[in-house]
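sorry for the late reply, my laptop died twice this morning and i had to redo everyting from scratch. anyway the thing you sent over, i finally got around to it. pasting the sequence first so we're on the same page, its 194 residues, then the predicted structure underneath. double check i copied it right bc i was rushing
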Amino acid sequence: MTFSRDKNFEREAMIDERALVRDALRRGRGDVTYPQMRANLNARLASGEFQIVERSQSVPGSQFTTAKTIEAEHEIVRRMRDGQNQFQPVMTRSEAIRVVDQHPHLNRAQKSVVEDILSSPDRIHGIQGVAGAGKTTTLAVLRGAAKAQGYEVSGFAPTSRAARQVNEAGIEGGTLQGFLARSTKPGTQEQKHF
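ok and here's the structure:
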């Protein structure tokens, strides 16, 4: 169950019960029975290691998260709130629009994200979308615009898999949790860091 927990929560904040049990049984390679795995899961639920996430009645099955995941999410939200309206934007809205105009390949949503992030006074920004939505392309445009303004650019993602995609956009970075563990007090980083 430990292998399954680590594997699944490395990528997601909530995991379907079926995926958690399936991966645990696969890792057990026949040495562990379903009743044994179920007992282990129930013991971890009782101890509070796993927590059931409430879902609507129309969605079958249970989803789980962990206390550690919830704690990390709370820390990320706290840091985001602490960083709101704390910094000078990379550029004005009109300058951001000019950057967007230089990239006609961006779709409307990507253009909006680029404009909003470049002209925002917030310390932390999140980009979310389905596979193929253009997140990496958007990040590459943001990186280029920030570097042109003299910023050092870093990117952080909730999972190591997503962090690799940030690196594919030419942005050095890692996981949010790793950043939070290493970082100093908010606001102590140099002004020209994006």
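Residues 54 and 144 are 41 Å apart (CA to CA).
thats about all i looked at so far, will dig more tmrw
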